[in-house]
Amino acid sequence: MVTANETTTTREPACPPMSAPSTFQQLQAHLRDRWRSTDEFDTQERHILVVPSLSLDQEELQKIEGVTHYEERLLFSLIRLRNPNTRLVYVTSQPLHPSIVDYYLELLPGIPSSHARERLTLFAAYDGSRKPLSQKLLERPRLLERLRKALDPQRAYMTCYNSTPWERDLSLALGLPLLALDPDLLHWGTKSGSREIFRRCGIPHPLGSELVFEPADLATAVATVWEQDPNLGRMVIKLNEGFSGEGNALLDLRRLAAVAPGTAGHGDRVRAIAAAFSTLSFQCQTETWPHFATKISVLGAIAEAFIEGDRKESPSVQGQITPLGAVEILSTHDQELGGPDGQIFLGCSFPARPDYRLEIQAMGQRIGEELARQGALERYGVDFIAVAKGDPESPEWDLQAIEINLRKGGTTHPLMAMKMLTEGHFHPTDGLFYTKQEQIRYYRASDNLQKPHYRGLLPSDLMDIIVTRRLHFNSISGVGAAFHLMGSLSEYGKVGLTCIGTSPDHAREIYDQVVTALDESTGG
What we know:
By secondary structure, the chain is α+β, with helices and mostly antiparallel strands. It has 4 domains: 20-180, no CATH class; 193-199 and 308-410, 2-Layer Sandwich (D-amino Acid Aminotransferase, Chain A, domain 1); 207-305, no CATH class; 414-422 and 431-524, TATA-Binding Protein (2-Layer Sandwich), CATH 3.30.310. The protein is built from 17 helices and 20 strands. The strands form 3 sheets. Strands 10, 11, 12, 13, 14, 15, 16, 17, 18, 19 and 20 form an 11-stranded antiparallel sheet that branches. A 5-stranded parallel sheet has the order 3-2-1-4-5. Strands 8-7-6-9 form a 4-stranded antiparallel sheet. It starts with 19 loop residues before the first helix and ends with a helix.
């Protein structure tokens, strides 16, 4: 296991040459020979470069506490090291603490951690600035050269958290195929692009507007949607490239009854809505309308009907489009949402409720096939809102698709954890996960177990507490807790975890036991 350092040489964001797209696509064609599913035990020599760059709007990212440590979430990619001839290079902005790396290697079943460690190389840019990691690497030509020397260009490919022109530039600079979406197709993962895919696939989705880039146009868009359904009580204003719900705001139309459709004219309604933007309920507590308005001109925004309901769930489906062109459903989840209006992703439970699990799988399959026709590749997730109708004991569920995420989202690493720990597989026929011994397993996961009294805990302290309480994952029983984001624990009092149990209630019980153990050990 090697750690490398490099100095900074800044440069402006690269503009790919005119031939770059075709060169990039030619590189990606090599994935057909180099990529293998994680479900396959592969004995061929493979080289994989993991670049967990969060190449998203950096100002929006700063709304997430401890986001500098989110590069750790792809450490579950070390599952690839269970294949005895696979070499993996993992690069981060700041060095990973050795104890964190050791923790993941020791979770690998069926192979000595020392054998896996010899095939793992770590690099760091030693740069904590607010730039995507991929940009930091491109600014360091000598570090790029070390990456090239650590990989066999005839066997290697690169994987990432999300794909942008920065990742494409890095792929071209290293001469490695990128297992990710071509950035030219990023539109399909935005709020407006998602709505277009839903229309094409005949997937039910909320009433909403087209994409706008000016607050004045947004006021007109809200008025137009309201006029299509005068019974709307609230609307969600969404930044087109927002994520985790942090870019959402809620507009309460009930406060504007004096200008409701049928009561006032269109112009008066638009003016009243524009004035009401200053009263938006933002999901990020530090957000303000003047600042949000500037983001609209950069990222764009849409207005969408807020789905009302006394009993609501937020299920999601995760799939992938393989380099061979196959569309595969990987999992379903019921998401846990929080924030002022239940818009921010906090965690998830696997699998989604049996009431609608197979239905969202079928819709996810149709969406994946349409994305594949557009040329998309790798992970995608689709979020829904499910509202219970009728008999409370046996309700009908109204499903509305909300958005598509073309990246490794918040439901990706818990599934990778389950695969790493159990060597199991997902069955799309019933939507359940089976261990290597064909035992069914469930999990509850979160990125946001955060409390002030957890601050100061080191990763080793966390392990002491969990091992003492016998809550760590037990490979014999196939149940217990696995952790991520441990680097953010000491400074932010925040950690991620995946709790695996023999039933949904058992997984929740383990989760609650972990929280209780941490609270009792820290005086909470």
